[in-house]
Design a protein that fits this description.
With 469 residues, the chain is of the alpha+beta class. It has twelve helices and 22 strands. Among the domains are: 85 residues, no CATH class; 68 residues, no CATH class. This is S26 family signal peptidase.
């Protein structure tokens, strides 16, 4: 074996330069992580770039297919490591799958999500394939190993979440998933099954895999990514009154492009082209109007912004005033958060409720416990039970609980077609991924390639238009 001195002497200048650059970046990363033990990995970098006691490049001395194949493997491994680091600590792409934030963000938008703004999370599931959230494409298997699981830790960011931010986060109720039916989620399905007399919903689902599929558990950072707007912040008292959100008793300004569903009475069908001109998707208007036989007229049920509503009211097909869906009485607006209690809340009328804040202590009662049960027991990992009308946390009777995490209330701009905090409650801080910065590219899924499929006017468009960075 060559001596250490000889190995160092034979190292080329260009390799020393590469080693120096990598070392600077590495120690900046260690400092950012706040864990000096990670500095020991530098010894591995020394061997990779300088001493080469481990034969990292043994394949370069081979000829034929071995050298070719290992060359590709080497390049792919380097690329995956780079992608892993970028996606874990800097940002990643995200596709808008639903219309919950229209018209601020559109279905088919591909976003670049900035993870550094709130501080990136240290990966809680460190061993995972970086290009798949939870399922390997084609193979249809898990893209991660459940163990090891690291404790939640967030690195320093530029600022905290502000009201009005559009935020990407892991779906809080995505810990347990029925693979064939993910909307509604496992907990909503369980709630509905109990209402229908099924005492053990999970057993029922497991016995009917042809309907529900496999029941799986997912760690926090491998759950589905959702994107909504931050409406309530830690420590806020939130209420929704006739669709108006009040924070600490005062109404807050709505996003510019907020939408509500309106019932639009018509004398004849409205053409698809006319809907498209004002930005209403086929999925939203359905093509044909709904016929109300009892009332003797037809109508559309469509989400509209204020500007769109003003246009629709002038159409010749419209033969009456537009009514908000939430005040029409035509639709069941119940089944809201929390699922295990009936406060009489509906989508347009909820609260008042307090949003948990790290370090703040709440007086728990049997009346408010359903609001905070999941946060205390699931998100913060406590054993919570009620016996003889008394609350026990980790085996001790108590009337008070001090929260370990901050929580947020998230809502979509498409208020009547958004599955948001009104249905599943608070978003814990350890579920926060980042905030979208800009639209990478956008595709209209209802149009063809040569018929306006690519939305050229949205490329590099600000993805958080109501906020200033």
């Amino acid at each position: 074996m060559k001596s250490l001195r000889q190995r160092i002497k034979e190292t080329k200048t260009t390799r020393w330069i590469r080693f120096g650059i990598v070392s600077i970046l590495f120690f900046l990363w260690v400092f950012w992580m706040g864990n000096p033990w990670l500095g020991l990995i530098w010894l591995l970098l020394i061997d990779i770039y300088i001493t080469a006691y481990i034969p990292w490049t043994w394949w370069k001395k081979k000829n034929g297919p071995t050298k070719t194949i290992m060359g590709w493997v080497d390049a792919i491994v380097y690329a995956l490591v780079l992608v892993y680091m970028i996606f874990a600590f800097i940002g990643q792409n995200y596709k808008i799958p639903s219309s919950s934030l229209e018209k601020s963000l559109l279905v088919g938008d591909y976003l670049w999500v900035n993870k550094m703004i709130y501080g990136p999370r240290v990966p809680q599931t460190p061993i995972h394939f970086p290009l798949a959230q939870h399922t390997m494409p084609i193979l249809n298997t898990k893209s991660y190993l459940e163990k090891p699981q690291l404790e939640y830790h967030r690195l320093p960011g530029f600022r905290s979440i502000e009201r009005g931010d559009i935020v990407v986060f892991n779906y809080p109720q995505g810990d347990t998933v029925a693979l064939k039916i993910q909307n509604p989620d496992f907990y909503q399905i369980s709630h509905d099954l109990r209402r229908n007399g099924i005492d053990n919903p999970r057993l029922y689902m497991e016995q009917n895999p042809q309907v529900f599929g496999e029941i799986v558990w997912r760690p926090v950072d491998r759950r589905e990514n959702y994107v909504k707007r931050a409406i309530g912040l830690p420590g806020d008292r939130l209420e929704i009154r006739n669709d108006t959100v009040l924070i600490d008793g005062k109404p807050i300004a709505e996003p510019e492009n907020v939408q509500y569903n309106y019932l639009i009475p018509v004398s004849r069908p409205v053409s698809n082209e006319k809907w498209a001109e004002i930005g209403v998707r086929m999925d939203d208007h359905g093509g044909e109007p709904i016929r109300n036989e009892m009332a003797g007229y037809s109508y559309y049920d469509v989400p509209l912004t204020k500007a769109m509503k003003a246009q629709v009211e002038k159409w010749d097909e419209v033969n009456g005033p537009l009514r908000k869906e939430s005040t029409s009485g035509y639709y069941d607006l119940s089944g809201m958060f929390p699922l295990d209690a009936d406060y009489g809340w509906t989508r347009p009328n909820m609260g008042e409720l307090w949003i948990p804040k790290r370090g703040s202590t709440l007086h728990l009662t049997l009346e408010n416990l359903p609001i905070y049960r999941r946060a205390i027991s699931v998100y913060e990992g406590n054993d919570l039970d009620v016996k003889d009308g008394k609350i026990f946390i980790n085996g001790k009777e108590t009337e008070y609980y001090t929260f370990k995490l901050d929580y947020y209330w998230m809502m979509g701009d498409n208020r009547d077609r958004s599955a948001d905090s009104r249905y599943w409650g608070f978003v814990p801080e350890d579920h926060i991924v980042g905030s979208p910065m800009f639209v990478i590219v956008s595709f209209d899924e209802e149009k063809g390639l040569f018929d306006g499929k690519i939305r050229w006017n949205r490329i590099l468009k600000d993805a958080n238009p109501d906020k200033k960075w």
